[in-house]
Amino acid sequence: MVDNLPPALLTPMVELGARGDLRRFAAVVDVRSRAFSSDLEEAIRLLADAGHRPRVVYVHARDDVLIRRYESVRREHPLQGSGRLIDGIEAERELLTGIAGESDLWVDTSDLNVHQLRDTLEAAFVEDGAPPEVVATVLSFGFKYGLPLDADLVVDARFLPNPHWVPELRSRTGQDTAVRDYVLGQDHAAEFIDGYMRVLDLLLPGYRREGKRYLTLAVGCTGGKHRSVAIAEEFARRLNALGVPTTPRHRDLGRE
């Protein structure tokens, strides 16, 4: 792995590695390299034309998280210039727009610790025997905290009764058996899950044909504590049973 590699050196580094029988190569490329966007897009195209399989991971976080991280290490943003820290962050987002849209995998690190980040990347890239055709993440979230930016698909569980208004369930979460049974036992909950599984049955073969290996299905409710958690766990269970390696994650659990 190489950090802060100028995009123009990606192809030479991959070719050198291939000569030494280095079959997998990771490079961290960011806006510290000037002419970043155009150079990186051209480097990715050259790698693909040469018969390599470049995969682009877009790693990002919310503005408030980025500001807190920069302030904790007392560093300026490389694009900040004479402006504010947020000006540098906004300039970077604009510069990354094209690359972000073409990325194979989005990873929102806003609510991940280093161990969760490692697990996310390992699930996507570590091969144990034959690589999985599609690796899925089912992410629960609360709409009141905003939509997850790295979601490929978003489903809304707010049509189901909220366990928050059941006194004996309010303090529990969708990972508790009582809450899970309450949510999944509601009218139309089973039909909702069954129906969306049929949608996934249609989508997954298309993703495979298009070479998409990573799927993030986001399930939302009001606060991300009860309904979305229970349903995300159920989606993950069913996808794993179908042979799709799936990890449930709960972005906003414990946030209230």
Automatic annotation (TrEMBL):
Keywords of the record: ATP-binding, GTP-binding, Nucleotide-binding
Kindly list the organism's lineage.
Answer: Bacteria, Bacillati, Actinomycetota, Actinomycetes, Geodermatophilales
Cite the GO molecular-function annotations of the record.
ATP binding; GTP binding
Q: Which residues form the RapZ C-terminal domain?
A: 137-253
- UniProt-listed NCBIfam families: PRK05416.1
Spell out the InterPro entries in the cross-references: P-loop_NTPase (IPR027417), RapZ-like (IPR005337), RapZ-like_N (IPR053930), RapZ_C (IPR053931)
Q: Which domain of life is it from?
A: Bacteria
Does the UniProt entry include the keyword Magnesium?
no
Residue stretches making up the RapZ-like N-terminal domain: 2-127
Q: What is this protein called?
A: UPF0042 nucleotide-binding protein
What species is this protein from? Modestobacter roseus
